């Protein structure tokens, strides 16, 4: 019983984005805001960032699958998917502070609006649907941010290498 309780608490802690998913309003946005700091620095470390993104993704699939059994389909408390999406938005995309704000707004926009192909992926069972829709939203935000940086260079930060 104690180990089962510990497992659930551990899964809740990580799966909820270190308890940011328990925030009373806009927990996904709150988790994304807290993820901006590591995303900003990881954008300059693409190998490390990729390893972390892959790890967060697979841990997120596992945790979201288990937590859905307790909290229901795609629960708002599960925000590890927002961590993945935010990190992907800035992957190999070093930005200035202004670029960080632009990337954040793009990321939240793609995540909230759910383009049709992203919405379809969200319907996958278990943690796959929870995680993959945010991965795709993050990829879309990353691509659009890259294009905007080409047009408006002040959004770009230091070198990624």
TrEMBL record:
Residues annotated as domain YutG/PgpA: 14-148
Key word Transmembrane present: yes
Biological process terms in GO annotation: lipid metabolic process
Family annotation (CDD domains): PgpA
Keywords: Membrane, Transmembrane, Transmembrane helix
Transmembrane feature ranges: 21-41, 47-65, 86-107, 135-155
Keyword Endoplasmic reticulum listed: no
Organism ancestry: Bacteria, Bacteria division WOR-3
InterPro entries in alphabetical order: PgpA, PgpA-like_sf, YutG/PgpA
Pfam families, A to Z: PgpA
SUPFAM superfamilies assigned: YutG-like
GO MF annotation terms: phosphatidylglycerophosphatase activity
Organism: candidate division WOR-3 bacterium
Protein's UniProt name: Phosphatidylglycerophosphatase A
